[in-house]
Structures are given as C-alpha cells and as structure tokens.
C-alpha cells in the first residue's frame, strides 16, 4: 500500500495556520487525519496549556521545551500508523515551531542545536508550508493577538528570524527545495492562500509517493 503524505503548515501566531490546515484537511477527507501541536488534550499538553495561558505559572525554558518535544513524541507512533495505513496527515505546527520559539528566547545554551536534539528521530514532513506575513504589525491587529504567552510583536519578530535560521540549517534555505514552500500571506484572502496550497499539494499527490520515511 502507498503510504500517505505528511503535510505540515507552520507559521507565526495568527497567520491563518489553523484555518488553512482545516481547509486542506476538509479537501483530503476521508483519507486524511489532522494533527495539531501542541496537542493540549494529553497530560503533557495540559501542562503546556497552563504554561501558555497562565502568566504566573512558571517553568524553566529548558523544561518547557522538553514538554513541547515530549508532546510531539506522544503522537509519533499514531502518526506513523496513519501514514503507513495510507492516510495523509495534515499537521498544524511541529518541530520547526518547536525550535524557532524556544531558541528565540535567547536562554543561555538553548541554541538551535540544543533545541533540535530531543526531536531527533521524529518523522520529517513530505511538504512544509511556511505562512509568512511580511508585516508583523498586520498580524498583531488581528483579533485575539496578545492573549497568550509569546504573542507580543517583539517576540514574534525574533521567532520569525529563528524560523529562517531553522530553514537554513535543516532545509538548505534559500536554495530550491522540494519540501519547503514559503508563502507570503500578507494581504491575501483565505481562499487565495488555500488555493495555492491545494495546487502544490495536488502536484505532490500526482507524483510517485516516497516509500521511505525521512527523520529529523
Ligand atoms: P498554537 O496553539 O498554535 O497557538 O501554539 C501555541 C504556542 O506555542 C504558539 O505561540 C507557538 C508555541 N510553540 C509551539 N511549539 C513550541 C515549542 O516546541 N516550543 C516552544 N517554546 N513554543 C512552542
Ligand atoms: Na497562539
Ligand atoms: Na495559533
């Protein structure tokens, strides 16, 4: 049986990731699953949710990073099962967010390599979309921005830089790469972005699917 594709959508907060992953999932249904990170429903996810939403709940940055990574490992077997069963998995955030957000904190010792280490061995996506809003002040004016930890303009700017550092380190950015697609969504309608994503996904689906997994 042909294995399914792992299609990941990454981006800063409030760039429309969740909307786009849902739209893509709807198009691929019923032969698809949707996985969102952090998954706040698991035991570890509940701790992560508490950390993100309660300002007075403090944990060392290293512990937080390892919790996010552990959350990805919690779902890794399920992920592999779905893909081997021929289901496509649409994913909302993953390892790239993990490294970008944690390394953006500039905590001593938590460089890109340190942050990648606990995620080593997780399945790599077959397609990776990065939704970029070139003017971060646009994003901040969207409803809801600023409710959670990390949702400040200053921090989001650092995270954006870190995303590109991660892409340089892991995806040879800016050299052409058939996994990574950077989409500038500033001033684009939801429909237009969805269409662009869908045409790239269809192109990929028309090709012979990769049989082997690649890992971080
Ligand atoms: P979301 O539910 O997509 O809004 O994500 C929650 C927040 O958690 C968002 O600001 C991004 C951040 N985040 C996601 N993964 C990681 C991670 O591995 N490490 C850290 N420090 N933050 C992460
Ligand atoms: Na968020
Ligand atoms: Na979000």
Automatic annotation (TrEMBL):
Keywords: ATP-binding, Kinase, Nucleotide biosynthesis, Nucleotide-binding, Transferase. Residues 9-197 form the Thymidylate kinase-like domain. It comes from Zygosaccharomyces bailii (strain CLIB 213 / ATCC 58445 / CBS 680 / BCRC 21525 / NBRC 1098 / NCYC 1416 / NRRL Y-2227). Belongs to the thymidylate kinase family. CDD domains: TMPK (cd01672). GO terms for biological process: dTDP biosynthetic process; dTTP biosynthetic process; dUDP biosynthetic process. Pfam families: Thymidylate_kin. The keyword Ion transport does not apply. This is Thymidylate kinase. GO terms for molecular function: ATP binding; dTMP kinase activity; nucleoside diphosphate kinase activity. Its EC number is 2.7.4.9. Pathway: Pyrimidine metabolism; dTTP biosynthesis. GO terms for cellular component: cytosol; nucleus.
């Amino acid at each position: 049986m042909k294995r399914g594709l792992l299609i990941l959508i990454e981006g800063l907060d409030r760039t429309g990731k969740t909307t786009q992953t849902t739209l893509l999932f709807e198009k691929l249904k019923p032969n698809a699953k949707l996985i969102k990170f952090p998954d706040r429903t698991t035991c570890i996810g509940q701790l992560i949710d508490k950390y993100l939403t309660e300002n007075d709940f403090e944990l060392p940055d290293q512990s937080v990073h390892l919790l996010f990574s552990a959350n990805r490992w919690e779902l890794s077997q399920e992920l592999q099962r779905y893909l081997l069963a021929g289901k496509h998995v649409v994913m909302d955030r993953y390892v790239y967010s993990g490294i970008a957000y944690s390394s953006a904190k500039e905590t001593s010792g938590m460089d890109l390599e340190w942050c990648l280490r606990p995620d080593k061995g997780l399945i790599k996506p077959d397609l990776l979309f990065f939704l970029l809003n070139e003017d971060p002040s646009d994003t901040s004016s969207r409803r809801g921005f600023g409710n959670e930890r990390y949702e400040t303009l200053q921090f989001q700017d650092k995270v954006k830089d870190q995303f590109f550092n991660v892409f340089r380190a892991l995806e040879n950015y800016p050299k052409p790469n058939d996994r990574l697609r950077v989409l500038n969504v500033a001033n684009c309608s939801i429909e237009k972005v969805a269409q662009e994503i869908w045409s790239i996904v269809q192109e990929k689906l028309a090709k012979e699917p990769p049989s082997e997994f690649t890992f971080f």
